[in-house]
Every structure is written in C-alpha cells, then in structure tokens.
Amino acid sequence: MTDTANADLAALIRTIPDFPKPGIQFRDITTLLLNAEGLAATIDRLATMHDGPFDLVAGIEARGFIFGAAVAQRLGTGLLLIRKNGKLPGRTVGVDYALEYGEDRIEMHADAVVPGCRVLLVDDLIATGGTALAAIRLLRKAGAMVGGAGFVIDLPDLGGVSKIEAEGVPVGALVAFDGD
C-alpha cells in the first residue's frame, strides 16, 4: 500500500491472494462495506474529493452503483447508471472498448444527460483504466462534461489514473495498493 492518508479505510479492505487466478492479489471491498463507520467515511471522502458542483454522479456497473448512489445522495444529485451491453431498457447510447482478450461495451440511456451536464464518475477500483476511459468517452459522446473521477482503490502499477488524467479528467482515489 502506498497511500497512508486513508489507512483506516485500507485496513478494512481484505486482500485475497491468488483470486481469481494465481498471482493476483484481489482487493475485496465487501469487508469495507460491512463496516458502517468505514462505509460512511468512504462515501464522505469520495463526495468531497472533487470540486463541484455536479449535476449527476455516474456509477459504473456493478460496484460503482453502490458508491455512486451514496455519493449522489450526499451531493444532492441524481445517479446515472453506466451498464454492460443489453442491460438497460429503452433507447441507449454506448461505446465499445478493448479488454485484455477481446472487446466489451458499456451503455447508458440516450436521454440520461443534457449537453453541458457536469458529471462525477465513481467506481470502486481503477486498474488499467479501460472501463473508466470508455465511460468518459460515453459521457462526452452524450454531451456531458466529466468534472472528476473518484475511486475507492487505485492499483497504480497498472497505470489507469495517468490514462484518465491524460484525458483532462481530475482523478482521486482513497487508497492505493502496489502490485497486482
């Protein structure tokens, strides 16, 4: 772990070695979610890490919905759902993005934002940044201005934060873990 500012939160995140495959150190947030004080502190800190105002908070499926909903409530905004392909009813807009082995697609409702809407993007973890970058492209495609991206966990060795910052989006993460 490289960040000590939120050591109280980092201590609530369990590491499960060799999951989902050998050599991976899985950072499990379920133990953080079980702790009422830790969960409340996480939401408060995510909600205050970027300068607003924001019109919406966008949560990335699925764990981003947990944090995004709470941050949206704390900021007094609505919650925009960014979902995997085919999960939303009604008319959608989407973007395809590359995975390590193949492609995926994320979508949102076509009428979810109005041009110029200021959005805060929230998810549980930033690793390589592929999904978050796709979400930023999707939001911009719909006319939104992405005013910040907040994550509970950063895996800095994988470089996702720098990729998002290169797109001109301020990024914050509460804790960072070195390694996989």
TrEMBL record:
Keywords from the named record: Cytoplasm, Glycosyltransferase, Purine salvage, Transferase
One record GO biological process: AMP salvage
Coiled-coil zones: none
Enzyme Commission number(s) from the entry: 2.4.2.7
Known pathway: Purine metabolism; AMP biosynthesis via salvage pathway; AMP from adenine: step 1/1
Domain Phosphoribosyltransferase stretches: 32-145
MF (Gene Ontology): adenine binding; adenine phosphoribosyltransferase activity; AMP binding
SUPFAM superfamilies listed in its UniProt record: PRTase-like
Broad EC category: transferase
Family to which this protein belongs: Belongs to the purine/pyrimidine phosphoribosyltransferase family.
Assembly notes: Homodimer.
Function: Catalyzes a salvage reaction resulting in the formation of AMP, that is energically less costly than de novo synthesis.
Protein name listed in UniProt: Adenine phosphoribosyltransferase
Gene name, Swiss-Prot/TrEMBL: apt
